[in-house]
Structures are given as C-alpha cells and as structure tokens.
Design a protein that fits this description.
CATH topology of the largest domain: Ubiquitin-like (UB roll)
CATH architecture of the largest domain: Roll
Largest sheet: 3 strands, antiparallel
Strand content: 5-15%
Helix content: 25-40%
CATH class of the largest domain: Alpha Beta
Number of strands: 5
Strand order of the largest sheet: 4-3-5
Order of helices and strands: EEHEEEHHHHH
Structural class: alpha+beta
Number of helices: 6
C-alpha cells in the first residue's frame, strides 16, 4: 500500500490492520510519534491526517486515506513551526517523551482556534498526558504560539 508521510509517498507491505504508529516507526523509521498506552488515551502517538490530530496507535494503516504529518514534517530546523518554536522558547520538555504528541495536538488545535482562552487550551490539551507535569509550561507555549499566529495574521 502507499502511504503519504511528511510530503513523501512510501510503498509499504504491511497488514491493513497494523496500527499506523507501527508502520511509521517500524517500517518507515519515523520515530517522532511515541508508543505510550496503545489505546489512544495518552496522546504520545498523535499525528495529523489531513491536518486532523489523530492517535496513530489506534488507527489501522489500511484506513489512512489522507496525508500523514508527524512532528518531523511539521517544521524543519531552518523554519520550525510556530508551536515548535514556542516549545523551545518556553522550555516545555523535561523528559520529552510526550512532546511530539503535545506539539501535534497544539498545532491542530491552533489551526482551528488561533486565539484560544486558557480554558480552551486546557480542554484541548487535556487528552495528552505529561509524565513530568509540565502543564503550566505547555499552556504558556500554546499561548505564545497563539500570539505569534495573531501577529503573523496582521
């Protein structure tokens, strides 16, 4: 089957029931999405499918019809995505395990709501668990990314 990931088309020979997470990690060596719980509850495996935040651990690869974007494809070292820049500037990561999923969730959220309230940020990000408890820094990074987006829109 063909899978479009980060703007590149890949041919993979896997069972259609294989979780997208394992196709990405084991077949394509794209390791940004992490295995956390395997049940779509923690958010560490979050990727975008056509811009929609999706839990790759519970999404069968055979059901993926759109373009997949992982944290590796969200930005690049020369031009990080606004959310990635905010994460660095606000030193969000401690252990870093959940961060790719957090970033992907925040990017999709801000694409649909570029000027959220703190309550909206907390609700949108509540499905992503952080073992280190950096939730205040996550909220501030999302706020900063929102401000950057608002400034870019002017």
């Amino acid at each position: 089957m063909q899978l479009n990931v980060n703007g590149q088309t890949h041919e993979i020979d896997v069972e259609p029931e294989m979780p997208l997470l394992w196709a990405l990690r084991d077949e394509l060596n794209i390791t940004g999405p992490k295995y956390g719980c395997g049940m779509g509850l923690c958010g560490a495996c979050t990727v975008h499918i056509d811009g929609v935040a999706t839990r790759s651990c519970t999404t069968p690869v055979g059901q993926v019809k759109g373009a997949v974007t992982t944290v590796e494809g969200l930005g690049n070292p020369a031009a990080l995505h606004v959310v990635q820049r905010a994460w660095v500037e606000h030193q969000v990561a401690q252990c870093g395990y959940c961060q790719s999923g957090q970033i992907m969730t925040a990017a999709a959220f801000l694409a649909g709501n570029p000027t959220p309230t703190d309550a909206e940020i907390d609700t949108a990000m509540s499905g992503n668990l952080c073992r280190c408890g950096t939730y205040p820094r996550i909220r501030e990074a999302v706020r900063a990314a929102s401000r950057s987006l608002a400034g870019a829109a002017k």
